[in-house]
Amino acid sequence: ELIDFYLERMVSLPLNILEDQDIHPRLCYAALRCVETLCRDWGPTIQSKYHVRILPVLAKLSCHPEHHRNQMHQAMAIIDCCHKCTPENLEPFLFAIVLKVKELCQSKSFLARAWAVSALGTVASSAQDRFTRFYETAMETLKDLLMRKYQVTRYNFKAKCLESISLIAAVIGKEKFQNDANQVNNCHVMYVYIYLLLLFFFFGNYTKLEMYWHKGYGSSSFNSKLSQVSFNKDNHLQ
């Protein structure tokens, strides 16, 4: 009971700060870091008891476009909060959270966009089948980011996009994701290994995929091999 008493006070302090419309950027940064740490270190207790308070604040918070560090930590706080949140607790706030993450995906900051992309995958993974109605919005955002041209040093951002796509695909299912899977594969065959992970999430059989990869198939030959792969009635590789 004593821990619960102090925990409530620790949660209330940063949330009250974030609810202030005239919050100073540095104070906003400190409050977001506090929310991140609480959700990460005290989860899932924090999420089960205080999700009604935390999620609306994170969804409503609008960081100044020039305060890139705050945008990045807002996305990180959403990840830490949603990661251990149940689908039932997340569902009432899902619409607002997805809109906020989509907004953060358009940030001018590369790091803020990268964490927002990760947040989109985390939200989908936590929401499970409740994320279905946001599938088109999420995929439109991720494919737009994926198709942009980046410097070679920032290609890991595309890997983050593919990682989030794989998490969403695991939630949505094969039938609905099939068309988007073809588009993603055609856009970036150089990320074959990430695509293998996507298929692993999708079809649940890693052995055959690992075998194909270690035989040294390149992107083009792998696609031809992939077209020959058949599936059993449980959608597992044969």
What does this structure look like?
The chain is mainly α. Helix content is 73%, strand content 0%. The chain has 13 helices and no strands. It is globular, with a radius of gyration of 20 Å. The protein starts with a helix and ends in a 10-residue tail after the last helix. Mean pLDDT is 80; it is low at 205-238.
What would the keywords be for this entry?
single chain, 238 residues, mainly alpha, 13 helices, globular, disordered C terminus
Number of strands: 0
Overall, the morphology is globular
Which spans have pLDDT < 50 for at least 5 consecutive residues?
A: 205-238
- The radius of gyration computed from the alpha-carbon positions, rounded to a whole number of angstroms, is 20 Å
List strands and helices in order, with pairings.
Blueprint: H1 2-18, H2 25-41, H3 45-60, H4 68-83, H5 87-90, H6 94-104, H7 110-127, H8 135-146, H9 156-172, H10 174-187, H11 192-203, H12 206-214, H13 219-228
Helix pairs in contact: 1-2, 1-3, 2-4, 3-4, 3-6, 4-7, 6-7, 7-9, 8-9, 9-10, 9-11, 11-12
Question: Would you summarize the structure shown here?
Answer:
With 238 residues, the chain is mainly α. 73% of the residues lie in helices and 0% in strands.
